[in-house]
Amino acid sequence: MTSATDQAHIDRLKRIKYRAHHRGTQEMDIILGGFVDSEIKNFDAAMLDRLEALMNETDADLYQWIIGQPGTTQCQDVELLDMIIAHQREKAGSGA
């Protein structure tokens, strides 16, 4: 049987996965969805908070940061953004 705390965590993971795969642009669906599918199992509650905060950014800003174009705003969580970029590069390098 699942406790209420466990169920809340499971529900949170489902919401994050859904948001990662349903961004509004296909590019960000693929980039964030793939990253979340691969890495979310390793995230504690604090890291999930950071991920959700980053996911609140617009697709346009996220995409500019990921491809290295200067944008109108600065990313507040460069470490997490670097993890997403590294994941995308690894995925591209493997031909996946």
From TrEMBL:
Gene3D superfamilies to which the protein is assigned, alphabetical: Flavinator of succinate dehydrogenase
UniProt-listed Pfam families: Sdh5
SUPFAM superfamilies per UniProt: YgfY-like
InterPro entries referenced in this protein's UniProt entry, alphabetically: SDH (IPR005631), SDH_sf (IPR036714)
Keywords for this protein: Chaperone
Top-level taxon in the UniProt lineage: Bacteria
Entry's family note: Belongs to the SdhE FAD assembly factor family.
Protein name: FAD assembly factor SdhE
